[in-house]
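Can anyone check this?
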Amino acid sequence: MIPQQILDTLERLIVACQHPDIDSVYRYGPEQSIGIVFHSQARAFIWPSEKPGKPAELPAEPQEYRHRVQYVLSLLSDLLDVVKPDGVQWRTVGVDGTHLSPCGLEIRAGQTRMLLQVTAGGAPAKDTDPASFADWRIPEGIS
């Protein structure tokens, strides 16, 4: 699997999961990174990073929802846990030079190793209360 295929797979899974707070998913930049737009117009960005990463577990209680980074990492990890792509391994990582940890996802597929960093921007409108979609689950049969 090449890096572009990894990004394509993640984009397809994010769209297919029909998360109730995600309005749209788009690609941007020369590396075709992934952008996510939430109902409040807050954004999250998933992009290839050249920085080294160190294994880091997601906290049991993530930061406030408005920060989004750990929520997006959790969603990506959950999607990969459900789909279990053949020959693909992943783990959450902290990225050197970044204060928030974890803030990245390291993916290994065959000879390819890719570190994707997740960043987020604030919302110009009031954020959705995460309690309003607490019962949401990844749809069965997603692939």
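Reply from J.R.: I decoded it. The longest strand covers residues 112-121.
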